[in-house]
Write a structure and sequence with these properties.
It is a single chain. It contains 19 helices and 22 strands. The protein has 600 residues and is of the alpha/beta class. Among the domains are: 160 residues, ANL, N-terminal domain (Rossmann fold, 3-Layer(aba) Sandwich), CATH 3.40.50; 85 residues, GMP Synthetase, Chain A, domain 3, CATH 3.30.300.30; 81 residues, Non-ribosomal Peptide Synthetase Peptidyl Carrier Protein, Chain A, CATH 1.10.1200; 73 residues. It has a five-stranded mixed β-sheet with strand order 3-4-5-6-7. Strands 8, 9, 10, 11 and 12 form a five-stranded antiparallel β-sheet that branches. A five-stranded mixed β-sheet has the order 18-20-19-21-22. Strand 4, helix 5 and strand 5 form a beta-alpha-beta unit. The protein is elongated and about 90 Å long. GO terms for molecular function: phosphopantetheine binding. Keywords: Phosphopantetheine, Phosphoprotein. One of its GO terms (cellular component) is cytoplasm. This is Non-ribosomal peptide synthetase.
């Protein structure tokens, strides 16, 4: 006689998972209904499961984490089967479940349009130590395709499509949406066969299981960078003491979109930025962190992103906030706070530690120069990134001081390490090295070498050899003799290589030459040396703002008819409208940058 199981009706009836639970009745099993107030309290839910001697529990990963923390696996009675669905299972939960013998846990995947599940995997299967959504169920199929609906190779991400008996017929009274999401099956000979476009990113593993890599609509574009929010969330969950994390883009201040991370439980968020910087590029590190006792859940047991609160406008600080101490610091502190969307800032905390980035630095410097009537270069913010340091730099700086390629990054400590000189990439500025200099620490003197011409008055230097000679002369003012430590990204690496060549020819030792993504330029015929101006403007927009002309919806044919200044102005105006460049930026500065970019 088949055994009768006692299963939970844990999902609300308007949640597709409830359909699978209700179908258990057709097979002769019992359903135990969970009251909403019981579902919301982990301790009461555990007591309810013991009272009803539950055999099978359906739940989301968010609900399961709360139950595990409340002691699910230590109770006298544990359901023999856990069916986990509705969200991605994080690595920490996977490890806990894979190590227990008190229950069998299954990770189930399936969109509502393929009710209820399309793929499955037993978490206790020792062949998988990281979360997977497994293989298709019987009578279901899974395909990972590229934008042209062609299968991708093993290990290559693509969009996940599903097929089979579980697919819905379509959307009621929505023929257009049905045609968009349910497409003809390109690999089937069966008449009328269809694929459903899930909108999820996935990839095949070598063993034939599927990795779930998040929603395609959770891929966002910020300051020109494509960012996977799921990747940030996964990195956050590896931080000790964190149970869960959510990342999203918010625009609480108009024109100032930023990444915000929400973590639970309510831990000290100060170390999280450093933790992420060890594994993620700086543009993927959130500007703000919000710690909550628990992430809000909706009625279906999933994280309710709409219920997440706005971040505090208080500046992050590990101690008492130090306010401005004179009129100059008060002015700068106000501009720092306005630019960052904060109520106040600590005058000793770096702009970049407060969540600033290169484009905000452009906006902030424009505001400082406008309020003070000065013409300070962008490099000033990297020499003096805090209010206190910038106020001191302004007091010491002379507007008539001649331009120099040498940019010292921040205040250096008393370290005795030889200085590291890092040459600019093709754009000519040293914005890209701000985080590298910070990571190397105050004991490591760090100098950027920026291109001549950025000030809008001096002329760009024409050749790599001439730039190298100029930069060698400049670095000798700081370090007259070797051994030298040089580096550079992209074009900067090529120039640094030529500098090393010239220094060694002069009898000097070069102890380190760090080439970051640099390569030997291919020879260019004299007839090809004049770059199309529209192409140059487009490449400049990509380099400065991380956007293409297509992203800015510009007519390239029209741009080709304009003079350089007019074409660049058109690009900058479109970039501000698209949010790729802050408003209020003096066009003279980007024009100088473009001339340097074009020369390089």
């Amino acid at each position: 006689v088949p055994r009768v199981l006692r299963a939970s009706l844990n999902a609300p009836l308007n949640f597709d998972i409830s359909v699978g639970q209700l179908l258990l009745l057709l097979d002769g099993h019992s359903l135990c209904l969970v009251r909403e107030e019981v579902r919301q309290e982990p301790e009461r839910m555990l007591a309810w499961m013991e009272e009803h001697r539950l055999d099978v529990l359906d739940c989301t990963p968010s609900q399961l984490k709360s139950l595990l923390e409340a002691g699910l696996l230590e109770r006298a009675h544990v359901p023999e089967t856990l069916l986990i669905c509705g969200e991605a299972v994080d690595e920490a939960t996977w490890r806990v479940l894979s190590a227990t013998k008190r229950t069998r846990a299954y990770n189930l995947y399936g969109p509502t349009e393929g009710t209820v599940y399309a793929t499955w995997w037993c978490i206790q299967d020792a062949t998988q130590v990281v979360p997977v959504i497994g293989r298709p169920l019987v009578n279901m199929g899974a395909f990972v395709l590229d934008a042209s609906l062609q299968p991708v190779s093993v290990g290559v991400p693509g969009e996940l499509f599903i097929s089979g008996e579980g697919l819905a017929r379509g959307y009621r009274a929505r023929a257009d949406l049905t045609a968009e999401r349910f497409i003809p099956h390109p690999f089937s000979t069966q008449p009328g066969a269809r694929l459903y476009r899930t909108g999820d990113r996935a990839r095949w593993r070598q063993d034939g299981t599927l990795d779930f890599m998040g929603r395609l609509d959770f891929q966002v574009k910020l300051r020109g960078y494509r960012i996977e929010l799921g990747e940030i969330e996964a990195a956050l969950r590896t931080s000790p003491g964190l149970r869960d994390a959510v990342a999203l883009v918010r625009e609480d201040v108009p024109g100032l979109p930023r990444l915000v991370a929400y973590v639970a439980p309510a831990v000290d968020t100060a170390p999280l930025r450093g933790h992420l910087l060890r594994t993620l590029p700086d543009y993927m590190v959130p500007s703000a962190f919000v710690a909550l006792a628990a992430l809000p859940l909706n009625a279906n047991g999933k994280v309710d992103r709409k219920a997440l609160p706005a971040p505090s406008t208080d500046a992050p600080s590990s101690g008492p906030l130090v306010g401005p101490r004179d009129a100059n610091e008060e002015l700068l502190a106000r501009l720092w706070a306005q630019t960052l969307g904060l109520s106040a800032v600590d005058v000793r905390t770096s702009l970049f530690e407060l969540g600033g980035h290169s484009l905000l630095a452009v906006r902030l410097l424009a505001a400082v120069n406008r309020e003070t009537g000065r013409r300070l270069p962008l490099s000033a913010l990297f020499q003096a990134p805090s209010v206190e340091q910038f106020a001191q730099l302004m007091a010491e700086a002379e507007d008539t001081k001649p331009f120099t390629p040498l940019v010292p990054f921040a205040k250096q400590g008393p370290g005795t390490a030889p200085p590291f000189f890092c040459v600019h990439p093709v754009g000519g500025n040293v914005l890209a090295y701000a985080e590298l200099a910070r990571q190397m620490g105050p004991e490591q003197p760090f100098y950027g070498l920026q291109a001549r011409g950025l000030d809008g008055t001096s002329a760009p230097v024409g050749t790599v050899e001439e730039m190298a000679t100029d930069y060698v002369r400049e670095l000798r003012t700081v370090q007259p003799s070797g051994p030298y430590h040089l580096g550079g990204w992209s074009l900067g690496g090529v120039i640094a290589y030529e500098m090393a060549h010239q220094l060694r020819a002069a009898g000097e030792e070069v102890a380190l030459l760090a080439l970051i993504d640099s390569y030997v330029p291919e020879p260019v015929a004299a007839s090809e040396q004049a770059m199309d101006r529209t192409l140059a403007v487009g490449l400049f927009a990509q380099d400065l703002m991380g956007v293409s002309l297509a992203d800015l919806a510009l007519d390239t044919a029209e741009l080709a008819t304009l003079e350089p200044e007019a074409a660049l102005t058109r690009v900058l105006e479109s970039a501000v409208r698209a949010g790729a460049l802050p408003s209020g930026v003096d066009s003279a500065n980007p024009l100088a940058l473009f001339r340097v970019f074009e020369a390089n």
